[in-house]
Every structure is written in structure tokens, then in C-alpha cells.
Amino acid sequence: MEENFENFNTPSQPKSKSKIKGVSDFLLIIRDRWLLSLALSLPFALGYVFIKQQVHEYYRSSSSFSLIPPPAILNLRSVDRDQHVEGLIAKHTEGLNSQQLRTNVILNLKNSPEYKSVLLAPFLKDGIIVDLASTVSYRVEQAGTKSRPRFIITSDSRSAKGAMIIADLVQKEYVKLHKSSKSEKVEFVKKTLEDLLENSLSKEKKIADDMSGFKKINQLPFLEDEKRDTGNRKSQYSSEVTKSRLEQIRINSLLRQILAIKTRIGPTESVSSKAVNDDIAVIKEFFEIDAIEEYGNIPALRQTLYDLERTRRDYEETGSGYLEKHPRMIENARSVQQVKNALKEEVTSSIEDLRDKHIQLSAQEKEFGDEMAKVQLESEKLSEIEDRLKNFSRELTVVQRSTDGIQSRLNEVKIEQALPSEQDEPLRMESFASEPGGPYSPDKQKIKEQGVMIFSVLFILIPICLEFIDNRVKSPWDVEVFIGDDLIGGIPKISEIEERERPLIVGNDLDDGLTESFRSMYSRIQMNSHTDYPKLILVTSAIPSEGKSLISANLAYSCANHGRRTILVDFDLRRPGLHKFCNLENEKGLLSLVNEVGQKGKEIDQCVAETLIEIHPNLFVLPSGGKTRAATEMLEHDDFSVVIESLKKNAEVIIIDSPPIGLFPDSLAIARKVDEVLFVTRYGKVSRKIVKSLIGSIKETGANLLGVVLNDLPQKKTPGYYYSGYYGYGYFRYKYYNKYYGKSDAEETRKTHASG
């Protein structure tokens, strides 16, 4: 037995967790709610079938035509025979769906009392008055192959004979309508084309006459010469205007230069060397203007000024040089002033001449501009004439093409009119309408199949939808995927064992399957455990009545049966109950031990040994020793830790049964002092979110969570899912325990377990 505990502290292998429920999960969900699903889905499906079968019966009959295309050699409308066949199909499709055909069919029905009676009989039977036209219903479909197209006429009616009558009449009336209208249509088309041809020829002649008259009036033979002459004159006038504008620009520039220098030639009479030299410099700038350097007396004045300048320079350089007040220097200065005054007169005269010339150029520019405008008008007129002539040509071309098209179509019609009757009538009746043997609607077989499908879908979806609406913990998927923790075990629902004896299932071996469930849970605990001996295991739940005391007691028996010295501690100090199933008094226990620690002379180990009660080999019980609401305060005292340490000396496994963690803080307080925590939840008792939140609170204390025990599982779920399907062992192995071993062998096995 010791060898079985070598793996007690070995970490379990990580298990893959699917966030999606498998097929087996959904099958269990359906099996759990199949009766409710049946009660909801079956009436709905039957109601659907019943309602669908209450509609009126309709009958269907068909007739058909076959289209025999003419040989390619006789296909004069188009080179491409396929295009011709497509045209025939389109024509007959339009005819079969025409309002004229429908009108003819309805008139025949109204004129026949027999037909009228047959079609209206089903409506009169129901007490409904309808118009005969509303009972006529048919459609035309194209079928067959390219080489042998077909037209199928399908009629629907509430009368079997009525469906046949409509399909037959549509077929016959279309043949009549097609034959009677064929010659009339051809003759009408021929007459129309002849009228169009006459009008087109008349229009063509009028356009030609108008164009000829237009050419004569506008002398079109000389049009090109006039266009060329107009272009030359336009170019010449444009060139002259450009020259005039350039010359005006040049004169304006000269005027600005002359006026700028004129303002600088002032009336100064000074004979100082500086004033004279400045006047000479300004005058020389004026002489540098090319346009007036030869104007009037300017050449002589320029020569005189250069001579005076040279003489003045000689005076300044001779000997010691003449001063500016020397008579010769004064005379020279006066001569320069005379030149300056004479130059001013010439400048004034030149300005007047330039301005006169500018006026002449402006007048010349206007004259050339007027001439160029006249030439532009002539050019535009010639362009209009040319455009008008082109319009005549285009109109004539369009009319000629139209005339050719009308003539070609008229020839085709004449040829078509002369074709043999076999080719004139390629549409032939293929099959005739017959009275249907039964209604096509409603399709009872199809409705039944739809009802079965609706029932199947609802039967599957209803349980699944209810399962997802219900968020209570009910499966390993809820624990391991949604909550995110390991499922340590699942305890089946206990119904045949009295409640006061249920904590003794493993101790007294009351049920083989239940006993094996706790053994399996023990094995899972040893695989998930990471703590060495001795160890403290806290068992708690979310709310009362979830079976934590049941789990604690039977787990303690399992540990003891596996050879581990075990102590079961009742820490539910608000509502103790473990002493009851052992038939023990609750005067001494955990509370009394904590109180005795503080007394002098008391050996705690001796007190613990005296307080522990052995109820089974290797199993001892420590009752609560009374009730108190100050459990959390007691946990903070050192005396409580001393008691726990003493208990560890007396056992390998200490299982502590605590109050519900969702109601009282006691479990969270003691969770900080234990090694591992086992969370118990009852099937369908608490929501997944609450369980997940409480487990999160436990983990926040730093305690190691072994996993979750799912208690009170329905028997119908346990064998097929939670153990055989999910773990591969457990209750399912013992379902056929007695069948396999026989009753005598089973009793012997139970006695063996009981003896130890």
C-alpha cells in the first residue's frame, strides 16, 4: 500500500482543455432534457404539417411545341444560322406570353358553358365567387436542345380537368393566332417598308437639290482661292499691326529717355569747373541716344561741345593751368552754356516730332486693325459656308444608308412572303394536354419531410439553448473550461442511503459504486497535490447544503483506508455537525484545545491526544467543541497555530471541514494557514460566475487549490459521461459490479473492505 503513495506528491500531467463542447457533451445535454424538448418540438412540427396540408389542392397539365429551324440555305435573314434560331425562339416566346393569346383563351372559356362550369366548380363548392379570368393560370418554359428547341405550356388549376382544358386551349389558340396573323403581318410590314422607302427617296432628292443650289449661290468653285487670299491678307495686316505696335513702343522708350535727360539740363549759369563739367557730362549722355544723334543741328552741337571740352582740358593742362576765373576759362564756360541752350531747343523740337510720329503710328495701327477685322468676318463666312456644305453631305449620307437598309429589308420580306409553307411555319405541336391523375400541391410527402426536419432541429436546439441559458455548474466543462480549474471528482446522487449514514459510505462500505467514486477522488488528489506530509486540506463550498461535510468525512475514510493517519476536524464553529454522525458529544474539541493552550502546566500534545476520538482505523475526529461566531478572531491567536502544529505531529493528513465561503469569512481566514483547499459544489446549485469568483478569492489568499468536486450528479449522467466518458474509470466500472462477480462474490468483497 505504501507503494501507491509514492506518486501522491507527483504533479499531474497537464490536461488539454477545450473551450468548445464536444459531441458527447451535446448528446448528454439532449439526453438530460429530451422529454421537455419532445414536448415542445413535436407539437410545433405536427402543427406545421397540419397547416401546410390544409391548403387547396392544385392540379397541373402540360402541352408543348417543337421548333424546327429551316435549313441554313434558306436562312436569308442572317448568315449565322444560330442567330436566326435565337430570333425565332424570341419571337415565339413573346407570342406565347402575349396578352392577345391570353385574351383569346379567356374568350373561348367564357363562350363554353362546359369549360366555365369545370373551372368555377371548386370555388363554388367553397362558397367563393370569382371571375373566370382569375382562374386562368399558365406559364411558358423553353426546353430542348439547340438543334430542337421546345416550348412547354404548363397550366395550374384547382380542377384536374380544368388544368387540361387550359393547357389544350393555349396550344390551339396560339396555332390559330400565329397562322391568322402571319400573312397580315407580312403584308403590313411590306406596305410600311414601301412607304418608308418612298419617303426616304424623296428626302434624299430634296437634300441633293438643296446642296446643289447652295453651291451655285455661294460660288463654291472659287471657295478655296478666296480662303487662300483671305488668309494672306489676314497675315499681312497682322504683321503691319505688329510692326506699328513695336515702333510705338520704341518711341515711347525714347521719349522717356529724352525727358529724363532734359530735366537734368538745368538753367545753371555758373562758370565753375564743376558745374561746367557736369553740364558737359549730361549733354554727352543725350548725344548717346541713337535715335536723335543725327536730328537737326545736334551733330554740329555735338562737335562744338567736344571741341570746347578738349579746349577746356588743354587750358587746364597748359603750364601751371588756367584757373576757372581766367578769361579764357570763363569764355569757354559761356560757350558750353550756349551749346546747352541750343541743345534744349533741339530736344524740345525732337520731342514734338516723336510725339507726332507716335500719333501717326496709332492711326496706322487702327487702320490695319479695321482691315484685319473685315478679313476675319470674311473668313468666318467662308467657314460657315464650308460647314453648311459638310452638313449637307452628312445628311445625304445618313438618308442614303437608311434608304439602302429599308430597301434591303423590303427585299427580305418579299422573299419571305414567297417561301414555301413548310418554312413559313416551323412551330409544330409535339405533345397534347392530358388530365392529371392527382394534385401536385400540396406535396404531402415533402411537407412530412419538412415536418421531420423541423422536429429534428428543434429537438436538438431546444436543450442546447436551455443549457446555455442556464449558467449553473453542471458538468466538467463548466469546471475545467469556464471556471478554469481541475475537476477532482464527481459524486453521484445518493438516493437509497439515509442522510445520517451518508458520511459513512466509505467507512461502512455502504455502496460499492459510491465508495469507488471517493477512491477515485483520492487518487486525483494525490496526483494534483504539491505538498509533503503532514498536510492540511481545507474542504469548503459556496453555500450550505452542497455536501462539503459529506465529502470531508468520506475523503477522510478514504485516506485512512489507504494507510494514512488522518484527523477530521470540524471547523464549522457556527453550525458544527460532524460529531452527530459519529454519535459523539461536542463538549470537547477544537475550541477547548485552543482555550487550554494558555493554561500553565498543560501539555498541548497530551491535550490533543486526549481530545482526539478514533472512529476508524487510522481515522480520528476532532469535533468543534462548541459554537462561536468569533472564529476569525481565534485564527489570529498564536494558541490556534500551536494546536495545528500539535495536530500535525499526530497525523499525516488533516482534513478541515469549514463553513461556506460564500456566507462567512472563516474559510478565507483559515485558507491562509492550510496547505491545500478542496472546493465542493453541488450539481445545478450555484452559478458558474459565483463559483469562479469565490475560487478566485481563495487563490488570492495564497492557498493551493487542489480542484473542484462536483457533488450530487444525476445517475443518468454519471456512467456515460462523467466517468466512463470523461475519466475512463469510476462509477461506470461498478455499475455492473454484481453482474460480473455475482452476488456472493460482491458480498465477500464488501466484507473484505470493511475488515480493513
Description of the molecule:
Helix content is 60%, strand content 10%. The protein is of the alpha/beta class and 756 residues long. The strands form two sheets. The chain has an eight-stranded mixed β-sheet, sandwiched between helices. A four-stranded antiparallel β-sheet has the order 2-3-1-4. Helix 4 runs antiparallel to helix 6, helix 7 packs antiparallel against helix 10 and helix 9 crosses helix 10. It starts with 22 loop residues before the first helix and ends with a helix.
User: Uncertain segments of ≥5 residues (pLDDT<50)?
Assistant: 1-18, 72-79, 420-424, 718-746, 749-756
Major β-sheet annotation: 8 strands, mixed
- Broad shape: flat
Oligomer: single chain
Taking Cα atoms only, what radius of gyration do you get, to the nearest Å? 62 Å
CATH-defined topology of the domain at 2-15 and 486-709: Rossmann fold
Helix content bin: 55-70%
- Mean pLDDT across the residues is 75
Kindly, what is the distance between the CA atoms of the first and last residues, rounded to a whole number of angstroms? 12 Å
Strand order of the largest sheet: 5-12-11-6-10-7-9-8
Strand fraction equals: 5-15%
Q: Would you identify the CATH architecture of the domain at 2-15 and 486-709?
A: 3-Layer(aba) Sandwich
Find the structural class using helix and strand composition: alpha/beta
| Total beta strands | 12
Tally of helical runs: 27
CATH class of the domain at 2-15 and 486-709: Alpha Beta
CATH superfamily of the domain at 2-15 and 486-709: P-loop containing nucleotide triphosphate hydrolases
